[in-house]
């Protein structure tokens, strides 16, 4: 297929951007360089400014679902990374993203096979391993916030998949989502450092704004199963990056939970006589 190499290249850069978001957020929020409200607002505003020249048509009601989904994702993501490690957070995030995409396919008539049901149970067991008492990964409030972020991102992906204007739609979503997170600033207790602001700007302008444009361009070319599959690389990249750049440990618990979640999701994508996507 002639467009396959380009699609693969765009998908690779998009996945690198997703992993980068986890690393930037954790680096900014873990040491108190910036708080969740300021991080969320700066991230969305930076993305909106970078994409503003590409906005196309004026924002309207048709953009509201994408903007709301984006705002919920960014808010939950920032609040969760106050406590969660980058690798654990990315695993919970994308487990919920895949569950949302798979559920959407199910309600569209794509029934799960026996391996699919086994995969759901395996992925659920992996989440239990990560969240069971007795390890530093355990933080139920943060995990719940990241789960909400994952559902919102899965919804955002589905909305973007049907968009005929990837760049303009992303720009309008960022513009409309920015004021939606401003109430979070009320709960911030101090001024952000320049280091925190720089990380938020990088996340918004590069790994979010430009990364999401790439993802919006890729998803219409892929089936739902393939969209779900390629995102599985994100938590792996995030965990490895966190170990190398943020000194987060690659624990046995994280490895077992990751293997169960990723393996379970792969099983849910198996269809007899078909390739995923």
From TrEMBL:
Main subcellular localisation: membrane
Pfam family, one: EamA
Transmembrane segments: 37-55, 90-107, 114-134, 140-159, 193-215, 222-246, 252-270
Keywords: Membrane, Signal, Transmembrane, Transmembrane helix
InterPro entries: AA-Vitamin_Transporters, EamA_dom
Signal peptide bounds: 1-19
The keyword Signal belongs to this UniProt entry's keyword annotation: yes
Membrane topology: Multi-pass membrane protein
Protein name as catalogued: DMT family transporter
Biological source species: Erythrobacter ani
């Amino acid at each position: 297929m002639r467009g396959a190499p380009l699609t693969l290249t765009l998908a690779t850069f998009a996945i690198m951007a997703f992993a980068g978001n986890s690393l930037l957020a954790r680096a900014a929020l873990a040491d108190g360089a910036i708080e969740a409200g300021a991080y969320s607002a700066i991230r969305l505003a930076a993305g909106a400014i970078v994409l503003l020249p590409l906005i196309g048509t004026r924002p309207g009601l048709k953009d509201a679902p994408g903007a709301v989904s984006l705002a919920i994702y960014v808010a939950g993501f920032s609040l969760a990374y106050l406590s969660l490690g980058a690798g654990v957070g990315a695993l919970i995030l994308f487990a919920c993203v895949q569950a949302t995409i798979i559920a959407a396919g199910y309600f569209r008539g794509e029934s799960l096979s026996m391996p699919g049901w086994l995969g759901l149970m395996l992925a659920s067991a992996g989440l239990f391993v990560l969240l069971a008492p007795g390890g530093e990964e355990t933080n139920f409030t943060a995990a719940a916030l990241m789960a909400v972020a994952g559902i919102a991102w899965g919804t955002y992906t589905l909305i973007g998949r049907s968009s005929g204007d990837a760049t303009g739609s992303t720009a309008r979503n960022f513009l409309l989502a920015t004021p939606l997170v401003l109430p979070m600033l009320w709960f911030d207790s101090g001024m952000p450092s320049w280091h925190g602001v720089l990380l938020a700007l990088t996340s918004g302008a590069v790994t979010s704004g430009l990364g999401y444009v790439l993802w919006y361009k890729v998803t219409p070319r892929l089936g739902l199963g393939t969209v779900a599959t390629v995102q599985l690389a994100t938590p792996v990249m995030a965990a490895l990056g966190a170990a190398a750049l943020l000194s987060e440990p690659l624990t046995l618990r994280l490895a077992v939970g990751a293997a169960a979640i990723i393996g379970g999701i792969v099983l849910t994508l198996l269809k007899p006589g078909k390739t995923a996507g």
